[in-house]
Amino acid sequence: MAFVVGVVAEGKTDLPVIEQLLGAAFEAEGRGPVEVRNLHPRYDATSGTWEDAGWRKVQAWCVRYAPTSRVGEFLRPIFAGDRACDALLIHLDADIADAVADELGFLPSLGPAPSPVERGAVIRRALDAWLWPKPEPIRRERPAQHVSLAAVQATESWIVAGARPDLVEPEAVDPVAALIASDPALERRRAPGHLRKSPKRWRRLSQRYVVGNEASIIARCPHLRAALDALTALAGAS
């Protein structure tokens, strides 16, 4: 039986990359099949549109689904027939670590050139603050089912890691500049320095650079590895 992971991602283009790496990690660990359930952003097949993206939307999701309601909605559905998730994976890009640290008043504050370790730590602290805003019994009950995924600097860093096996520390490289350098067609014509992003295009990039390179990517991206290790450990314990 598949291990079901409910994914809350910052944006629609993050989903195919996360799904590919998640599946590869479970296969490598011999944990059996894994099923990804997109909790955010969701796709509306009727209108052909996606929910709005961005880190504020991840924050809003965490606030909307407080600990008790989150368990009742996704981990132990109250209504018969609702599919339960075995774990929740909440993703946030670390390129907004400075803004999050300032808003939440984290001390010590990030310096002018924070390391990948510092960026990832801020994102995990932010997600923890949003997911557990106040002590509740449910927090102490099964917190392990909640796994934070800090993408340092962004999920595009994992694509870059696949495209550039020579990079020892891909999390320290600006992924936007690296992707544009590898493929100038990815740059917006009217917005230099920004990417032309779409789920279809990012799925192709994932197929090109991530598929077959998952082990190398995971090994060189510690924050990604930590989250995947936590999920496969949960699957092994279930």
Explain what this protein looks like in three dimensions:
There is one protein chain. With about 240 residues, this protein is of the alpha/beta class. Helices cover about 50% and strands about 15% of the residues. It has helices at about 15-30, 55-65, 65-75, 95-105, 115-130, 135-140, 155-165, 175-180, 200-210, 215-220, 220-235; strands at about 5-10, 35-40, 45, 50, 85-95, 145-150. The strands form two sheets. Strands 2-1-5-6 form a four-stranded parallel beta sheet, sandwiched between helices. Strands 3-4 form a two-stranded antiparallel sheet. Helix 7 packs parallel to helix 9 (about 200-210). The longest helix has 16 residues, at about 115-130.
- Rg, rounded, reads 18 Å
What percentage of amino acids are in beta strands?
A: 5-15%
Give the overall silhouette. globular
Oligomer: single chain
Measured distance between first and last alpha carbons: 11 Å
Helix content: 40-55%
The arrangement of helices and strands along the chain is: EHEEEHHEHHHEHHHHH
Low-confidence stretches: none
What summary fits the major beta sheet?
Answer: 4 strands, parallel
Provide the spatial order of strands within the biggest beta sheet: 2-1-5-6
Counting helices, strands and paired strands, the structural category is alpha/beta
Q: What's the total count of β strands?
A: 6
How many distinct helices? 11
Mean pLDDT rating: 90
Write the layout of secondary structure elements.
Layout: E1 3-8, H1 14-28, E2 34-40, E3 43-44, E4 49-50, H2 55-64, H3 67-75, E5 87-93, H4 97-104, H5 116-131, H6 137-141, E6 146-151, H7 156-163, H8 175-182, H9 199-210, H10 214-220, H11 222-237
Parallel strand pairs: 1-2, 1-5, 5-6
Antiparallel strand pairs: 3-4
Helix pairs in contact: 1-9, 1-11, 4-5, 7-8, 7-9, 7-10
